[in-house]
Design a protein that fits this description.
By secondary structure, the chain is mainly α. It folds into 3 domains: about 1-85, no CATH class; about 90-185; about 185-274, no CATH class. Helices cover about 65% and strands about 0% of the residues. It contains 18 helices and no strands. The protein has helices at about 1-5, 10-25, 30-35, 45-55, 60-65, 75-85, 85-90, 95-105, 110-120, 125-130, 135-150, 155-165, 170-180, 185-195, 200-205, 210, 220-235, 245-265. Helix 2 packs parallel to helix 4 (about 45-55), helix 6 (about 75-85) packs parallel to helix 9 and helix 9 crosses helix 11. The longest helix is centred in the C-terminal third of the chain and has 21 residues, at about 245-265. The protein is rod-shaped and about 90 Å long.
Length: about 270
């Protein structure tokens, strides 16, 4: 069997022989060294077979050899490494080399699997910080989606590295994580975000209480608040049905918001449509 596993010219024959070697090695420990050497076989099907059939209680040197295939040229091999991480490296944080590989992975589906493992093992803070250091928007979006799935109530400090992205889609995803808990996001960030999104005026009315607690705002915050106030004025002037209770409530919210806008800005607020 060893001769077939190491010397047969057909990769599928070597793979089948390796599968049997793994079974035999459970009762003949001397065979494990041969099995370990087969992880460097030139044919991906051999490496795949070994990863697939490596037992959970394999010697550590076998698991270490298998784990080193995390950046294998074969996508199927890399996928098996991710799916068997618990066996290959045990619990705990991913090694830095694996994190680098995850960030560089070109296959989006596999990259998302890496991100999921990263989040599950150590939370999302490290992943978010890592993708924020790259210029790739798709990585940021995937990392935020992963965080939402694994840590939906992550605090602002975890997401903050991506909150200053120049990519609108990334900012939208950041906002979506705090849409139902606006009080946990910095007022300064919310003002700047909402100032560029007229369609989200409803969320701005939810900031009235926080605005009422402030005596001053910086220049950038005031500019954002003026823009939001302009949206509110335009909406009030739109001529909606004043007898509709929902409209009445909405207009009352807008007027309350405008009270705080005028107080903080210290000057009349112009319509955003001018």
């Amino acid at each position: 069997m060893t001769a077939l596993a190491t010397g047969d010219p057909d990769g599928h024959v070597r793979a089948t022989a390796c599968q049997y070697l793994v079974r035999l090695a459970s009762s003949d420990a001397a065979l494990w060294d041969t099995v370990r050497d087969r992880f460097s076989d030139v044919d991906a099907v051999v490496r795949e077979t070994l990863l697939l059939h490596l037992p959970d209680d394999a010697p550590e040197r076998l698991s270490a050899a298998a784990a080193r295939l995390f950046d294998d040229p074969s996508r199927a091999v890399r996928e098996l490494v991710v799916s068997r991480l618990d066996v290959l490296i045990g619990p705990g944080a991913l090694p830095e080399a694996m994190k680098d590989c995850a960030l560089a992975e070109s296959v989006a589906e596999l990259r998302r699997s890496w991100f999921a493992a990263w989040c599950a093992r150590e939370g999302g803070q490290g992943l978010i910080a890592a993708v924020a250091r790259t210029p790739h928007q798709e990585l940021a979006l995937e990392a935020l989606a992963c965080l939402e799935a694994h840590e939906p109530l992550a605090p602002w400090r975890v997401i903050e590295p991506l909150a200053h992205s120049k990519a609108g889609e990334v900012l939208d995803q950041v906002f979506s994580l705090f849409r139902e808990r606006l009080d946990e996001a910095p007022l300064e960030w919310l003002l700047r975000y909402l100032a560029g999104r007229r369609r989200m005026l409803w969320y701005a009315t939810g900031l009235t209480v926080r605005l009422a607690s402030r005596e001053t705002l910086d220049a950038g915050e005031l500019a954002a608040l003026r823009a939001i106030g302009g949206y509110a004025l335009d909406d009030l002037a739109s001529g909606a049905d004043e007898y509709d209770p929902d409209v009445q409530e909405w207009e009352a919210d807008l007027k309350t918001l405008l009270v705080e806008v005028r107080r903080l800005c210290g000057e009349p607020v112009a319509s955003a449509s001018r």
